[in-house]
Fold this protein.
Amino acid sequence: MNTVTSPGRAPAKNMAWVPGGGFAMGSADFYPEERPVRRVEVDGFWMDDHPVTVAEFRRFVRATGYVTVAERPPDPAQYPGADPDLLRPGSLVFRATAGPVDLRDVSQWWRYEPGAQWRHPQGPGSTAGGLDQHPVTHVAAEDAEAYAAWAGKELPTEAEWEFAARGGLDGAVFCWGDEFAPRGRVMANTWQGQFPWQRDTPGKWDRTTPVRRFPANGYRLYDMAGNVWEWTSDYFVTGAAAPAGPACCTPRNPRVTSAEASLVPGEPGAHIPRRVIKGGSHLCAPNYCLRYRPAARQSEAVDTSTSHLGFRCIVRGAASQLPNPTAPRAPS
Ligand SMILES: [Ca+2]
Ligand SMILES: [Cu+2]
């Protein structure tokens, strides 16, 4: 597919080189928040070839004693009028419904579970045993950034993430081409069947899957589409508000650093900034949410964690060329 020449040795294990370049960011064919399609350039970088796993996250927590947002009691001042149950440490867990439901009401399948966190992804009675090679979940934006800093890495911008997900196939619908299941082959962990109650793959994969179970894209990156959504460093804005360079030039390495720009006045939680998440998850289904595509994007409040949201990190090109003896020891 692509002959990708990396600029030397990877800065850590299990990272793939994503060459820089120009590409058509966004899509005109699906949801309004993906528009308009615009020309963008990014510089090359190294990217984790899979989402950060439970085992990798455990190494970080053991080394640092880090406590995730989902494990901390929420500050009542931040959530005026909240149900007391929502003020116990916890996280959002997906529960399949017994039958078809009104797809506009997400509370039918999302439950705030006190005690849910990365070690107990299905709630306090569950464990992450057997999930070592699955993506870590129940991580808020600051948890992802704390991990990245420890590993000597960073979160990608939305443009970097999307460029990487495209794997060199500029303008294609999916990370692997234009066909959802080429020659019948399932290419990503997405919901097969009728969301949120019926699956065509019972027992095969109901939730997250071990990383690298599905084929890599053209840049040797796994699980970009599906499995878990992934945090980026960009705050969420749409079309008109998106950063545009001078009219003469293609934006290069665009990023959205203004938390204020992501606030939506008048909604509950309106004071909590929102980030862009990318890639879709195992809950994205044709009858509900066609977001297992590079251009797809969603907003997520920075303090939110769920059973279908994780992250991966990058190391930008120039930095990777420099020996950095003071960098913390990266997880393998
Ligand atoms: Ca993903
Ligand atoms: Cu979705």
